[in-house]
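Components:
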Amino acid sequence: METREKILQAAAEMIAEDVAAKLSVRAVAARAGVSIGSLRFHFPTQRALQDSLLKRIYEHLLPGDPIRDRTLSPRERLLNCLRQVLAPLGTNEDARTAWGTVYRSFIEPEPTEPVRTAYLAHEREAERRVEHWLTVLAEEGALPPGDHTRNVRFLLTVLNGLSVERALPTRESVLIAETETLNAAVDHVLSTGPAPSAGPPRP
Amino acid sequence: METREKILQAAAEMIAEDVAAKLSVRAVAARAGVSIGSLRFHFPTQRALQDSLLKRIYEHLLPGDPIRDRTLSPRERLLNCLRQVLAPLGTNEDARTAWGTVYRSFIEPEPTEPVRTAYLAHEREAERRVEHWLTVLAEEGALPPGDHTRNVRFLLTVLNGLSVERALPTRESVLIAETETLNAAVDHVLSTGPAPSAGPPRP
DNA sequence: ACCTGAACACCGTTCAAGT
DNA sequence: ACCTGAACACCGTTCAAGT
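Structure:
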């Protein structure tokens, strides 16, 4: 097996065994049976290794990319992409168990370093996905080019809010409220460009 | 000045100078002119130091009941109101236990009728609060009068997203990301109608 | 081109010892 | 009670040297 593959394989195993596994250079290199330097040759930074791994995992469990479907308007496409994030959550029953996993993995335990980095890896991958959508739409001129991080964070927060609301007890029509909120979020993103980030408030 | 105070002051300065400053034990201790051990005595972990700092910053920028304070622009007032919802959640530790309660009360158990009505009571109270703010602002002409339920739902979803993100493991810059997202949400709500009031430019 | 591992400059935390 | 700083066990990255 190729060295690069051995490394990714070893890292994947470690994550499979424990979501919060540390994935340090030395640990992964040892498990893969390669040297530190060799790992660095294939993955110039630890970040690069983690990104490659996460990308592979996510590619595996959700293909298809409605963002480039030119038969739909940009706002419809972005809407569909956001829906595609919420869809696998299912409705109440499934959403409840899904949030159970999230709660026990990342909220209940103390946010120790391994827990934290495990969660941040997921978060980064989610950001990467949303960023991809916005970049594609920006290429088409549907929204101004530049730094989208502000809008990415905004959309992810809305998605977090909607997904937790799926798990909470609902009134009759979640679907309508959800659609309206998604519409509002998409409207906002498509009607505003990237903006310079605000400076920190001073204590 | 007290040692604890010197440390917080030094950390605050470093963040003010550079949002992405590292805040390592040695860097903060050196800047504060205290020893590593002393810093550790007052802040048992680096995490504890960062949380104390964040808490202080939030306390500083939270005034009293803000919706009718005519000295501020409508958008600043709405922003402050939303912050006032998030503030009592506290950072990670408190937010985690708070979400623990929510999870065990309303997500983990089957959504039987008593569970459901108990949750909906909370939800209705939250809606009532947000609706009040929007009504006051509508009276001033800052946004069109009429039915605000769409905007209320939108804002509550954003608040849900932000509050769950407080309970999840965080990056360093929660405060900035949160502020930007709140800004985006408020922008959206206030731009859904005419009557743009001339307030000071936003940061 | 690929691989090695020692070395470097960091990190957060611990702890015996001081006042 | 508060403070000190050396020591410990890590970390990611670099790099001269090998094949």
